[in-house]
Amino acid sequence: MASAPVPRARSFLAERLAAADMVDDALDSPRADGVSLAAADRRGVFVVLEGGEGAGKTTQWSRLADALRAVGHDVVAVREPGGTPAGDAIRALLLDPASQLAAESEALLFAASRAQLVRDVIAPAVQRGAVVMVDRFLLSTYAYQGAGRGLPMSSLRAVNHFATGGLAPDLTLLLSLPLAEAQARMHARGAADRMEREDLAFHERVREAFDRAVSVEWQAQHPEVGPVVAVPAEGAADAVTGRCLEALVARWPERFAAAATAALGAL
Ligand code: Z5A
Predict the structure, then answer these.
(1) What gap in Å lies between CA 27 and CA 13, rounded to an integer?
(2) For residues 237 and 59, what is the distance between their CA atoms, to the nearest angstrom?
(3) pLDDT band at 182 (very low <50, low <70, confident <90, very high)
(4) What would the pLDDT profile of 66-107 be if each residue is shown by its tens digit?
(5) Mean pLDDT score, 21-25
(6) Sign of CA dihedral 173, 174, 178, 182
(7) Residues 36, 39, 41, 45: is their CA dihedral positive or negative?
């Protein structure tokens, strides 16, 4: 008599991902601390600035926050890693050239800083209706720890879903600048941190990963990153700010048209 088919054993990875899904379910449910991470609870907007080092993200993050505040928007601007006391301590460890970190430890530390920032700052601010502007987020992990360090994307995705509770940016502005120009800006600025000291091949892999994230196909496969639009970062800072504002207006015409008109007039 033929025996009943034996169910195929699930792989170790599949078991781990199933376990991660169970945790995600718990995070997507209403939380005892009142911080809901569900998309339906958002009154504000969650905008991320991304790009390789030297592209001018931090400059634009600060200029955009100022421009939006000047016309009355409630803006919360934070950077990754950091933005909370725990995150700032993690940042110091991650960027210190003296830190000896395995790639896996590095990825987990970025995720730990992100988890704290989401719960303490981003989710509450988006819920109350603020414009939340974050200098780097999940896409940086995919570019630096995924493409740069070569860590498996499935692991980065699972760990970061746990860290973010499924909270995805509403829009990422990806500042795009030729690598040589970005590096010239960094050399002009001086002193390099632990990540910036990586070799050119590392930074080229990071750059290619950011470039891939602009495609419709890549974004369809990575809904956890949210929509990504490329913003050319060449030229004077004023011109780049203008392009960033245009991208915000294209995504949210009613919310940002007045701010953009005022800011563009003042540039
Ligand atoms: N990282 C990671 O590996 N994984 C992750 O998940 C996350 C981060 C979240 C954070 O370092 C490091 O962590 C980062 C990625 C990694 N490392 N790297 N390499 P950070 O926060 O200290 O640094 P950064 O995010 O890379 O920013 P940056 O180095 O300061 O670059 P930037 O923000 O793109 O550029 P900037 O500071 O605005 O400008 C750089 C210089 O160019 C400065 O002197 C400006 O005055 C100048 N600049 C800016 N705009 C212009 C224009 N338009 N023209 C001329 N000059 C300009």
Answers:
(1) 21
(2) 8
(3) confident
(4) 999 998 999 999 999 999 999 999 999 999 999 999 999 999
(5) 46
(6) positive
(7) positive
Asked whether 203 lines ligand 1 (CB < 6 A), one says no
Instruction: Look up residue 48 and give its DSSP letter.
Output: E
Instruction: For each of the domains in the chain, give its residue range(s) and CATH number, in order of start.
Output: 44-266 (3.40.50.300)
Residue identifier of the C-alpha nearest atom 48 of ligand 1: 56
CA distances from 78 to 51, 86, 94, 141, 218 (A): 16, 13, 17, 17, 26
Which tens digit of pLDDT belongs to each residue from 191-242? 678 787 888 899 999 999 999 999 999 999 999 999 999 999 999 999 999 9
**Is residue 58 in contact with ligand 1, taking CB distance under 6 Å?**
yes
Alpha carbons 264 and 267: distance in angstroms, whole number? 5
Phi then psi for residue 171, to 5 deg, are -160, 135
Alpha carbon distance 137, 134 (integer Å): 7
Residue nearest to atom 53 of ligand 1 (CA): 237
Q: Ligand 1 centre from 53 Cα, in Å?
A: 4
**Which residue would you say has higher pLDDT here, 221 or 188?**
221
Contact, 173 vs 48, CB < 8 A? yes
Tell me the C-alpha distance between 174 and 138, whole Å.
12
